[in-house]
Amino acid sequence: MDLRLTDKKVLITGSTSGIGFEIAKRFLEEGASVTINGRSDDNLQNALDRLKESFPDSSVNGIVADFRNPKAHESVIKLLPEVDILINNVGIYASKTFDETSDQDWEEMFQVNVMAAIRLSRHYLPQMKKTGWGRILFVSSECAQLVPEDLIAYSTTKAALLALSRGLAQTTKGTEVTVNAIIPGSTLTEGAKIFLQQQAEKENKSPGKISEEFFQEARPSSLLQRFAEPKEVADMALFLSSPLSAATNGAAIKVDGGSIPGIF
Predict the structure, then answer these.
(1) Model confidence over 146-181: pLDDT tens digits?
(2) Domain spans in the chain, listed from the N-terminal domain onward
(3) What does the mean pLDDT of the chain come to?
(4) Which one is catalytic: 93, 154, 214, 227?
């Protein structure tokens, strides 16, 4: 299927690994012009090298920006004043109890997970409306609805993105601009692989056994009963970013393997 993304200018925050990196790969496969983002030169260059090796004839660039800095968006906008598609993917988390989560933890997660998306959307959305077409996509999380006890702050930020996405979508009425969110479930990113390996070594079990027990104990509601592959999440992101998705606006689309119970 041709997603009609050739030459579309795309910015993906937090995209040197995991879901963001896979989204970048899929856009390049579709012929888009992609700018990825990381918070360190080394990580960014490593990701760029990998993408250029896989897609030698594609247009791919990178911008270093650490969104813990409230001014980080300014350097992004200066280097990339216009985009057709904005993927607000960057996110951090801290696995702590509510009592252990400090004000600094809360503020840092809101700065990166929410305020970065707000600041970039505030710049690019009016430009998209003016040019007559655009896509903004927020990458939320199943934690926005499941809310694990050790991820309350992270879950709160991811729930905020759902409200932000819906609110911005309502400002696009009658245009060719859409704003949506995706809600990934447990995904086999590099971080997840490290977690599985560390737990396997700690408990003297195989990573496969740890994964099986995770879905039995922590995600028993999952219908998929396995970690999703990053590409499976990226494929949904690509469709929602394409001209083919014009009738989908203000939506929060689950890519969670059925882990969130209910029909809404």
Answers:
(1) 999 999 999 999 999 999 999 999 999 999 999 999
(2) 9-187+228-255, 188-227
(3) 97
(4) 154
Q: What is the pLDDT of residues 227-262, one digit of tens each?
A: 999 999 999 999 999 999 999 999 999 999 999 998
Is 3.40.50.720 the CATH number for 9-187+228-255?
yes
In the annotation, is 93 catalytic? no
Contacting residues for 220 by C-beta, under 8 A, at least 6 apart:
none
Nearest by Cα to 26 from 46, 12, 41: 12
